[in-house]
Every structure is written in C-alpha cells, then in structure tokens.
Amino acid sequence: MREIDSPSTFEESTYGFVVAGHFNEPDTYVTKRPNGMGDWLICYTLEGDGYFTTPGQEAVCQNGDVSLLKPGTPHQYGTKKGRNWHFVWAHFPPLIMETRYLPVQDLLVHRVESGSARKRIYRAFKRAITDSRERRNYWQQLSENAVREILFLLLQRVEKQLDPRIEETLHLLSNHMRDPVTIEQLAKAVGLSPSRLSHLFKENTGSSIVDSLNQMRLHQAALLLEKTDRNAAEVSLDVGFQNYNHFAKLFVKQYGVNPSTLKIQRKP
Q1: Is 166:192 a contact under the CB 8 Å cutoff?
Q2: Confidence tier at 1 by pLDDT (50, 70, 90)
C-alpha cells in the first residue's frame, strides 16, 4: 500500500508557495493527515474515482469535480477501492487570496459541468505545475496566478450555477462575438432545440440570446472608444455590428449618447 502520513502538527506541513502535480494512482494510494496542514489543497479529477474524508464529511471525487480542502482540517484522501484516480492538484498558502473569497466549509467538492470551463481549469493547473517545476524567473507569481484563476472559476460557479449548456452558449457568444451567429447554430452546438435554448437561456440569465450578445458587443465598443484611437464606425465593425445605424441606435439606448459623442467626451 502506498501510504503517506502527515507530520505531527499541521503547521509543519506549510509550504508557503504553490506546489502542484499530476497523479494517476491505483487503489493502493492514500494520504493521511490527522492534524491537517497549513496550506489549502485543491484537486481536479480528470478520470476515475477518488475520495476525501474529514471529521464531518466523506465525499467521492469523479470526472469534472474540483475539491477544495481548508487548512487545519484533519483529513484522509485516496483512490476508491477497485478504481484508479487520475487528477491534478496544488497546495497553496492562505495568503494567495483574501480569505473573504474562499468557502467557509472545511471541504468543498463541486462538479464543473461545462466543457469549456473544464478545459480552462485543466489548462490553469498545467501552467501551475509547469511553473512550480521549472522555477524560472517569477515562477512563484505565475503559479499563484494560475491557482487564483482556478479558484475564481470555481467560486464563480459555486455562487451562481448556470445550466452547463447555457454556460457553453455564453462561451460561444463571447468567442464568436464578431461573427454572424444564429440561434439555430448555437442550439445545435449545445444539443438543444432553438426554442428550448431560447427559453432556458432567458430563464438562466434574465436576457434573450440576442440581447446578451448585443450587451457584450456594446460593452466592448465602449472600451474601444475610450481606450483606443479607433473611430465609431471602425469600432462598430470590430465588435460585430454590420450595420452602423443599428449599432448607434443600441449604443444610445445603452449609454445615453451616440458613439461619436462618447469618443469626444472621453478623449484624453
């Protein structure tokens, strides 16, 4: 049996910087820390089944689950009997984020359903692992930033859970903001009928798909007008409006002035 026991006090298990890794373990794998440790531990399960046990909770970790363990929590974790557990992990110090952002419970296990979110979380873990291993200039800051991204992606979903198909739709709208995209195309991409997608989108976000897309475009347009030297007509095309008059009408409704006037008002 591969078994790892903790030091006698959890303060001795504080690294003070990000330590990250990528494991694929058989069911002989178990880690026991009866006194906890001084760092947070976050894991993301890629395949198989793992588990966490704390004094008040026992949780199974499966594909797409993010597990977050609080410092000082006595715990045991490992691979479920008869299974393998393929996962990435990172220990990180409490000072990496303000504690007001982090969950109050000792152990949080949250399923990430969205495919695009899973890919983003995995990419961030890979960056944390690479930087913590290579230790080139600024490795500590880079690995901490990667862990912060994972934490905020987790908290974003814990605080407001969207249907994963709506989350994917928002991701598609953001990535294809400049492209002519139809509700039929979006519906096919997320496996829903156009009418069901429209209804579910409004139910989850409070806005229609078209209104949400236009909001994305208008917010980006306002930033470009304020921060770049591009004129209103150029910005209209940059954010995906093919008709300038339509863009200007929506812009006035959103901001109370036409795009050219906003450009003049915010000119340095």
Answers
A1: no
A2: very low
Q: Does 142 lie in the same domain as 218?
A: no
Say how many domains are in the chain: 2
> Which residues, 6 or more positions from 1, have their beta carbon under 8 angstroms from its beta carbon?
28, 30
Read off the pLDDT of each residue in 201-225 and give the average, rounded to a whole number. 94
Boundary residue ending a domain (115, 140, 159): 159
216 in Cβ contact with 173 (< 8 Å): yes
Report residue 94's pLDDT band, with 50, 70 and 90 as the boundaries. confident
Residues 49 and 64 in one domain: yes
Question: Is the same domain home to 56 and 186?
Answer: no
What CATH number does the domain containing 239 carry? 1.10.10.60
Smallest CA-to-CA distance from 32 within 12, 62, 2, 56 is with: 2
Nearest to 40 by CA among 86, 87, 108: 108
Determine the structural domain holding residue 123 and report its residue range: 2-159
Residue 267: pLDDT over 70: no
pLDDT one-digit tens code per residue, 62-73: 999 999 999 999
User: Mean pLDDT over residues 90-98, rounded?
Assistant: 87
Residue 244: its H or E element: helix 244-255
Residues 193, 126 share a domain: no
Contacts with 62 (C-beta within 8 Å, 6 or more apart), sequence order: 45, 48, 49, 111
What CA–CA distance (Å, rounded) separates 86 from 76?
17
